[in-house]
Amino acid sequence: MKRPLNPPSVRAPFGHYSHGLLVTGVTDLLVTSGQLGIAPDDTVPDDVEAQAVLCFEAVAAILRGGGMDFSDVIRVAGFVTDRAHFPVYMAVRDRYTRLPRPASTLLIVSGFTRPEFKVEVEVTAARRG
């Protein structure tokens, strides 16, 4: 159902992700909105790792709601507010993603809806129905 695409004519991925992921025979597709590092009680931790964990835990809950898990994720989009957040974000992402590694994009943005937010994550997941 999923086959990573990392052609030898394209530089190898910088981290644990695939340049492309061919998904065949899909009947269920789940797309999340961006999830921010905010707890259900509206608290926002100051550190990037804690925010990233909250983002991925929110995604995990959404996936469960759709009868899926991280093995069904085919694409991750991450957004951070500082280049220094890259390694921390990627380490958290790598703890959650499964093989074959999904396609992944990471962008630096100038900010989110509230200044205390440092990370946002959205995913696309697919599986046979």
TrEMBL record:
For this UniProt record, the keywords arranged alphabetically read as follows:
Hydrolase
Extract the InterPro entries matched here.
RutC-like_sf, YjgF/YER057c/UK114
In the record, what lineage is assigned to the organism producing the protein? Bacteria, Pseudomonadati, Pseudomonadota, Alphaproteobacteria, Hyphomicrobiales
- Which Enzyme Commission number(s) are listed? 3.5.4.-
User: Which PANTHER family does the UniProt record give?
Assistant: BLR7761 PROTEIN, YJGH FAMILY PROTEIN
Q: State which gene encodes it.
A: ridA
Gene3D superfamilies reported in the protein's UniProt record: RutC-like
What Pfam families would the database entry show? Ribonuc_L-PSP
Recorded protein name is Enamine/imine deaminase
Task: Tell me which stretches of the chain form a coiled coil.
Answer: none
Q: Name one GO molecular function term.
A: hydrolase activity
Q: Which organism is it from?
A: Methylobrevis pamukkalensis
